[in-house]
Amino acid sequence: MLRIRKLLDLIIKGAIVIDGSGSEGTVLDVGIEGDQIVAMAPNIDAESAEIIDATGLVLSPGFIDVHSHDDFHVLIEPEVRHNIFQGITTVIVGNCGFGAAGSDAGKIQMKAINEPSADLPDWAGYAGYLEEVDKTSPVLNVAVLIGHHTARRQAMGGIENRPPTDVELAAMLASVTEGMEAGAVGMSTGLVYEPGRYASTEEVVALSKIVGQHGGLYVSHMRDEGSGLLDSVRETLHIGEASGTAVEISHHKSVGKANWGLVTRSLEMIEEAVAQGRDVTADQYPYTARSTMLFALVQNGTFNDSEGGAMGKSEPSEVLLCSVPGYSNLEGRTLQSFVEEFDLPGEEAANKLLMDYSGDILVAAFGMDEGDVRMVMAHSSTMIGTDGLDRGSKPHPRAWGTYPRVLGKYVREEGVISLENAIYKMTHMPAAKFGIANRGLVKQGYFADLVLFDPDTVIDRATYENSRVGPTGMPHVIVNGAFAVRDGKHSGSRSGRALRRDQN
Length: 504
Known about the structure:
By secondary structure, the chain is α/β, with parallel strands linked by helices. It has three domains: 2-61 and 442-455 and 472-488, Urease, subunit C, domain 1; 63-288 and 368-426, Metal-dependent hydrolases (TIM Barrel, Alpha-Beta Barrel), CATH 3.20.20.140; 290-367, no CATH class. It is built from 16 helices and 22 strands. The longest helix has 17 residues, at 166-182.
C-alpha cells in the first residue's frame, strides 16, 4: 500500500494499466495531481478530490494521432469531438505537405482543402500558429509539422511547375528554419499533390537538411502509392539518408488491385534500412478506402489508366463524395451515379463536378486490399494515424473511428496484433518518434493524458453511410489531468496545449 498524505485531484482505482511500453497490463491505482501522474501502486491510500472505480477497464496513455489534418479544426471548433471521443489526446498537424502554419499562401491552400467556408484567426509563422493554439486552448494537444507545400507556394508565388530560383530556395530554407526554431517536430511532403509533385528530390533534400540539423524528422506522402510504390520508398529513404533525418512514411499502403501485395517488398525495404541503423517508420489507418481530393484523383490518372497512376486505380463505383462545399445534397453519392446522370466516362464526370459545383470536393476512394492492411499493421515499423478530415456531411469514417476500430476489430476480433502492441503503436512509439516529451506512457512524472476503455466492448460505430458517430466502450478521456470525456460525454473542458519539439 502506498500512503500519500497530501490531497490528490484524482485516483483511478483498480484499472488494468497498459502503460504504452509494450509490456503486459497490471492492475494498479493511478494518482493524479494537477496535470501529472504522481503515483502508481497496487493500492494508493490517500485523500482525493475524486476517485473513479476502473475495475475491468484498461487505462492507457492518450492516443497520439501522427497523421492529422485538423490544423484549422483545432482553432475553429476547439472541442474537436471526432478526435477526443476516440481517445486522441495529441494530434500532429501539417501532414502531406499541407499546413495551416507558416505563410499566407499555405493558409489559402490548406483552407481550400480543410475548411473552405471558415473564418480564421490571424497569425504569423509557425511560432504564431503555436501561440494561437495556446490562446485557443483546444480540447487536445497539438504539435506541428512544416508543410513543404506551404514553404514552396509562398516562396514561388503559387503553384509553379519549375525548380525554384536560388532566391526562392533561400526563402524556402528560411521558412523551414523558422518552423524548426519555433518547435516544429519535422517537415512533411505531399509529392503526389501540387505543388509538391513539381519538386525535385534534391530540393526536398536541401530543406530536410535544415530539419535534420534541428533534430526533426522527414514525413512523406510519397510520389506514388500505386505501381511506383517501391521507387517512391527508395526516394524517401534516400532523402532521409542524404539529409540526415529520421523518416516517417505516411499512410503506408499499395493502391489499385494490380498493385496489391507490393507492401510485402516495401516493408522489407524498411527492414533493410533499419538493419543499417537508420530510423525509419510508417503510419497507417485501418481501412481499405483512402480519402483525398477529387481533383487529385483526376490529376493522377485514377480513372483513365488501366492500372491507375500514382494514386492507383479506383472505379467510379468505388468513389464516394464526402464533402461538396455548397452542395451537401450531393454528399454520399458515388461518382458512378454521376457517370450515369451525365452520361460521361469517369474522368469526364469528375471534371464536370469540379467545374460545375466545386473544385474542393473531398472523396473516399476504395482500392486497397484488406490483407495488405493487416500486413502493414502487424509490422514493427507501423504506427496508427487517422489521416482524417471531419468535413462535409459524409466524412471518411476514419475521422471518428480509427483507434476504436483497431482496438475492437483488429485486436479483439481478429487478433492481428496484441492489445499491448496496439497501444504501443498509438502512444509511446509516436511520442518517441516525434519528440513529444513526457507523454505516451502511463508513468509517474508524465503528463496525465489518459484513456479508459473496456477491452471487451470498445469498437468504432462510424460507417461510410453514417460517419459522424463516436465509438462505444470508451467512457473516459483525460487531457493534462482534466476530463475531456466523462462517462461517454464531452465535458466541455479544453485543457490542450501547443507542444514544441522535445519540450514539455
